[in-house]
Amino acid sequence: MAWRSHGDRQVDGLSGTTRRTKVEVVPETHAHRRAALGVLIREAGLDALLVTDLLNIRYLTGFTGSNAALLVHGAGDEHTVFCTDGRYATQSAVQVPDLERVLERASALALAARAGEQGQYGRSGFESQHVSVEMYDTLNAKFGGELTRTPGLVEQLRLVKDEQEIDALRQACSAADRALSDLIMHGGLHPGRTEQEVARDLENRMLDHGSEIRSFESIVAAGANSAIPHHRPTGAVLAKGDFVKLDFGATVDGYHSDMTRMVVLGEPADWQREIYDLVFRSQAAGVDAVLPGADVAAVDKASRDVIADAGHAEHFAHGLGHGVGLEVHEAPSLATTGVGTLSAGMAVTVEPGVYLAGRGGVRIEDTLVVRDGRPELLTLSTKELVVV
Fold first, then answer.
1. DSSP per residue over 128-139, as a string?
2. Which of 159, 223, 336, 382 is 20–30 Å from 349 (CA)?
3. Which residue intervals are annotated with compositional bias (Basic and acidic residues) in the record (predicted)?
């Protein structure tokens, strides 16, 4: 195995089971998030917001069960009500100790009925992107007041991560880094193994290092399959001379990591070194462009221009990156069609690629946090081409 360095911090040869530190998110953190949401609710001319998306409920309360609704009042927690069903009576008492709780199976309907009975929620919003037309009609009939389509308010808050969220992301990235190091150092990448075998091995190692679940179905793509951006692992057998693309992530306290690294089995061919070095330079340009105030389309352009100038524009057919957090793909979108600017505290990926159909492809991806001056890199595995 050979490792080359361009001076970035590396995770080389870390081994052993990682005992991760629990990321403690205290009730005050959730209360602060609800207070921030209250400001957005009032600015939207609303009295309250009915939250039904479970990830948004987790963000606002800490609740991790499979059924819940939350009626957030713009005036504060005194009139905010959380609802789940009896299966989660004990769990919700621990996770949501600071809000009034109602136990009803049909949680959203129960809160809508409560709002209709009490009449203090007036003009309220609901997460229209997560509610069917049929459910809206039922909610609206029970609510009594004016129920207004209000998509994206909580997601607007989730764009910028607080330090507790970033710590969870950091630990998720560490679990993935250490899993990759273990895989390589213990001979998990060699001719004769299948893509599926490697994927299962890598995912089990992430669990060993503190991941709750995999962030997504891991991509292990060998040989010509590495030219397929979102290839699903198959029974294809790794062979000498192959590029092997590994795109994978861990999850800690609900927060996801996302990383892509390349390995070549045996001495790289000239064409492999050429496109790897090109993507390496493109990725570095993209990372350097990740700054507060940067236009997301301009960040994409900074990376894409490096590849286009080398004559491979048509071989980079996807966006540069995306936000990452409670979802592995969330706003903002770093793409030619992306809209908006970056802010300090956003967590994003930078993942350019060059894909040569029938031969092989390269993608290099990091998860990082937008910071003043220079982004904080969370995925620390070497970005040099690893030769095994």
1. GGGS-HHHHHHH
2. 223
3. 1-11
| Global pTM value | 0.92
Exposure string over 298-322, b if 16+ CB within 10 A, otherwise e: ebbbbbbebbeebebeebbeebbbb
Residues 224, 269: one domain? yes
pLDDT for res 116? 85
Owning domain of residue 84: 27-158
**Are 87 and 65 a contacting pair, CB within 8 Å?**
yes
Q: What does the pLDDT look like over 196-234, one tens digit per residue?
A: 999 999 999 999 999 999 999 999 999 999 999 999 999
Tell me: pLDDT of 11 over 80. Answer: no
- How far is the CA of 318 from the CAs of 211, 223, 335, 337, in angstroms? 28, 20, 8, 11
Whichever domain contains 68, its CATH number is: 3.40.350.10
Q: Categorize the per-residue pLDDT at 130 as very low, low, confident or very high, splitting at 50, 70 and 90.
A: confident
Exposed/middle/buried for residue 139 (C-beta within 10 Å: 0-12, 13-18, 19+)? buried
Residue 285: its pLDDT value, please? 98
Do the bridges between strand 81-84 and strand 69-73 make them parallel or antiparallel, or are there none, so unpaired? antiparallel
Whether 133 and 174 share a structural domain? no
Domain of 208: which CATH number? 3.90.230.10
**Segment 290-331, tens digit of pLDDT:** 999 999 999 999 999 999 999 999 999 999 999 999 999 999
Measured in whole angstroms, the distance separating CA 144 from the mean position of its chain's CA atoms is 37
Q: Which residue has 């286009």 as its token pair?
A: 308
DSSP 360: E
Q: Are strands 123-126 and 146-149 parallel, antiparallel or unpaired?
A: parallel
Give the pLDDT confidence of 328-371 residue by residue, as tens digits.
999 999 999 999 999 999 999 999 999 999 999 999 999 999 99
Sign of CA dihedral 101, 103, 105, 109: negative
Tokens 């979108």 map to which residue?
Answer: 333
Candidates 290, 288, 303, 299; CA nearest to 343 is 290
User: What mean pLDDT, rounded, does the chain reach?
Assistant: 93
How far is residue 83 from each of residues 54, 236, 357, 364, measured CA to CA in Å? 12, 48, 51, 43
**In terms of C-beta density within 10 A (0-12 exposed, 13-18 middle, 19 or more buried), how is residue 255 classed?**
buried
